[in-house]
Batch of 2 targets.
Target 1
Amino acid sequence: MAQTQPVSSWATDFDVLDREYVSSPFEIWDELRQKCPIAQTDRRGRNWLPTRYEDVTAIAHDIGHFSSLEVAVIPFEGEEPDEPVLPYGLPPISSDPPLHTWTRRLLLPWFSHRRVAGYEELTRNLCRRLIAGFADAGRADAAAGYAQQIPVRVIAHILGVPEDLSDTFTEWVRDVLEFADDAERRIHGMESLVNYFVAEVGRRKEEPGDDLISELLQVEMDGKPLEESIVMGAAALVLIAGIDTTWSAIGSSLWHLATHPDDRRRLIEDTEVWPLAIEELLRAYSPVTMARIVTKDVEFAGCPMKSGDRVLMNFPAANRDPEVFENADTVVIDRMHNRHVAFGSGIHRCAGSNLARMELRVALEEWLSAIPDFRLAEDAEVTWAGGQVRGPRQLPVVFP
Amino acid sequence: MKIRVDQDKCQGHARCYGLAPELFDIDDYGTSSVVGDGTVPPELEERALLAIANCPEYAIEEVD
């Protein structure tokens, strides 16, 4: 990530790629919530950053004023092609109703809780295989060597694409999301993904399988097959949205457990606490921020938002709002009341939330069962990525 | 105790099912509904209250 100009005021000149913000945004949100709950900046266009639960969820529900046609937190600053391969972007995430409604219904059954239960064994075996690779070494990079390796392989399975391309997929997705402020990398990542799925769609037309891409190609709407750009966009979405996000949640949770031995012990000794604990880790370390585009001038909570402005849906900050969560900045591992919006709010609720939750749970179960006692390595640095998705990218830990 | 799910509000977070799978059913599109007529056996009342308090869309309510 490139270094950014120092921020003069978090209320009027915020920068979500600022290094201090990326590694620890929590105090900045606390201050904003009290003084200026919707911050503004003119960096990379005009952007707003709500920090209160009430505002974030109200905007998420007001799809008339706040469109999802652009959801990237960092606007694309390169040239748009005249005839894009994906004219609808990545439906349903980058669409409004009615396109959103029917494309979402095509994807949802692939991520229903019943279907997701069927991916659990695969996920568990994968976690065990990864752990076996470093368990004897006494140290590991819990982000790059573990968390990062899991979701991409499960998604590859769902899409019916080769698992051995995982590193390549990860590289492309990082180019698109993590290095979004580097136009060259972003274009490279997106073009590589699009070209890959153009070829895959061609191949599935010849030899259909029992995967998501093949099934979408067989769907008919009004007696006609789906436009191929919809199939490619949806497939690319599953890959982009299903990798970085969940690996960040797994990584942040392992960071928490490496630094909070009491919570680690509680999870090992008390299996009943798991359903609450998983939601609490999702709340406290929500990885994902999505954008909305203001469709028409509107005054929202006293802020004069103009058509074309970008609103950064700060679900992570909403989830630490003390108006809604007692001891909001503390992980209360058995928190009972937890209406968190880590997966968003309203019609764009993360379509893969059941899958993400299962992957997070299984990744932590397997880690703690093999490595119950671990801590951050003192001789190596933890690094964080931020912007669209926040999570550790390097998480060196040691264990006996 | 009796509960209901407002399916216009439900967005499929599946938090109710995660906390009280005995009381809710979820379809392939994520939409939740109560099992049976929504009557909650006394031993599950605490879980029902938990499900109500954790729904991010405020879609579950007690009806009597």
Target 2
Amino acid sequence: MRRYFFRRVILLLPTLLGVSIIAFLIMHLIPGDVVDAMIGTEANLSEESRETLQRVLGVDKPIARQYVDWLTALLQGDLGVSLISGSPVVDELMRGLPVTIELAIVSSLIAIVLGVPLGVISAVHRRGWLDGATRILGLAGLSMPNFWLGILLLLAASRWFNWSPKLIYVSFWDNPAENLSQMLLPSIALSVGFMAVVMRMTRSSMLEVLNQDFIRTARAKGLRESAVVARHGLRNALIPVITIAGIQFAYLLGGAVVIEQIFGLPGLGWILMKGIMQRDFPIVQGGVMFITLAFMVVNLGVDLIYARLDPRISYS
Amino acid sequence: MSTAIEAPALGSSFEAAAIPPRRRTIAQLARTFPLAASGLIAIVLLIGAAVFAPFIAPYDPASQPGPRFGSPSREFLMGTDNLGRDVFSRVIYGARASMFVGMTAVAIALVIGGFFGIVAAYHLGYLDTAIMGIMDILFSFPPLILILAVSAALGPSLSTATLVIGLVYSPRFARIARGPALAVMQEQYVEAARVVGVSSWRIILRHLLPNVAAPLIILTSLSVSTAILTEATLSFLGLGVQPPTPSWGVMLSDARTYMIISPWVAIFPGAAIMIAVLAFNLLGDDLRDALDPRLGTL
């Protein structure tokens, strides 16, 4: 297992290098000069302050040199400084990370707690009306834009409960109750698509497992049907479900942008969007790199857990 | 079940052509696959709405024929927005941006990804490693984050959104195409074709392409649905279609500020997005069941 782990990490290195090149180059896709894009064309900037700005941003050097400098700093955990706030990009992102992770955890919990039982029910009642209903529910959940659901939830909350999201974010450690009440609606909005994926995976995985010989054996030896389904069926069917849930969790790290925007939660996506709107390039560049790293780490973790759980996979 | 796709094990298209496919009427097909049929009908209606928008929409989407915040009525089916524009007309015109971006972006991804996936499988070795390495790098980004950042850098517009979504979606097409293509490359009839001097292009077109068609078709349908969703997300965030072009995402985003007064401005554009996404999901889901049971139901 340890050898497998190291091999996977080493195989990741060239990909990481490529990712860093793309994340770096995004800033250079901007047509014209970064300085122009930053301050707008109408501003009259003296040649001198223009050069100072270029030097501060490091864009006066050749592009390869800029990349090497950026990568060297990155390896030391330095993603530069925000042009707006002046504080290190890493610090800003680390402030957003707990918000996004909490959002991802709460929505994953909702999705799994509801999605797995629904998937089992659907599989056990295959081709019955319950199966039909849950399948349609699953497709609807997949197709529901989460930001539309978020807006509808906000609308309902303010119309019927006179509730609107607080403008100031409260962290879980400061006030758990307040924090959870802030997190509830955005988590529900994010969890619906996730739940649909978990449900559909549970269903198809259960259907496959319930066809196996050992299930017939379990029934033949007179086990109650509930025990057959839960102990023999679900336990084996859950492996692919865990994988898909892990992948969905990884997506949430980078996919909560809109929900964070709607509910005013200062997570990673919110910081990235603010950077985009304020033309704060170090934030955008660093944010893309940081979120992608988190995404890759979670995906690697999912692969490792999968290899660990499924005895059929040899990790030589 | 399989009407269009020949079994890979049977091999040559010559052999498959000798067996006449069972003919079924459209009505029979629709009865076997009710979900796909309803999805297809919705897709045809949506494309129709996009193409014939000027004939269907009662008002010009930019004109302000009604009162501000008018509720749905016989005159304004879905009410009017903060400027007195007809929401129904704007939803109809909004289908243009969504369908165009969704379908064109996936077409780009299909061509780029399919091409490189098959070429990688055909040439193996360095070229394969290089192509799949680049695809893996693109695949490592959370798709929405990469699309957001690149669109913002290039300057948001409809064509930028289309191109960027297409590029970011191509790795999954490359992966899906490479697998079956690799399997076919091991077949003796491909080796035979090579030995007698059939050109690479002919082998790719005659033998590889038909075998990767089924998974690519399924992925295409499912990807259009996510591409439509992505376009709506981009436009919602102000990084996709730019006003005054009517777009469902932009309409929803505008609606946030005054949806308490007039909920319909938030309800109808969102419902339109959901129907479009659902239509392609329904089609893709049944296509998967019909064409490739091995892929499972995800």
